[in-house]
Amino acid sequence: LPDEALGTFLAYVGGRAPLAVAEFFESRLNHAIAIKANEGFSCYKPLPSASFWSSFQGIQESPQYRVTLEKIFSWVRRFPRWIYETLEIFWHFGKPDETSFSVLDDALHSEDADDLLAVLNILTKAQKDLAFNHVAFAMHVLNLCAAHNKEMEAEAIRILHGNCLSLPGGMAVGGSPIPI
Fold this sequence. Notes:
The chain is mostly helical.
């Protein structure tokens, strides 16, 4: 099945049964671990390229939305070899809304620093201008990271700052942004 067709198929099924798609991906990740695809070079790719995915419309209205996001969030720590793909998948399924923030908030209140780092990793791929568009959540992240330690606070500032300064498009000659 070509990547484009797989993306369309997954978007169709994901809009109707998002947890089933997440469980399918998780099975593929577990299979990759079993065949040691995470050790060195392997042709096996447990997660399809997100660049070929269509919109996962309907997921946010699904009764399985939160549990699906919780499952995907757990992969950040469980499958570090595929963290970049996991970050993309989280935001393909989720959007910056109360449910997504609630899933992240559960980890923010953990005593485990790795949970905080997992949230910060997820935020590296969040929609641009998250801190401007969701100020209360961004301040909450900063306050909880600051309460943990100075290094975590600095990392949260760096990630949220980067999220707000990343602009689409390119740079003009002389380093000035191209007017949008």
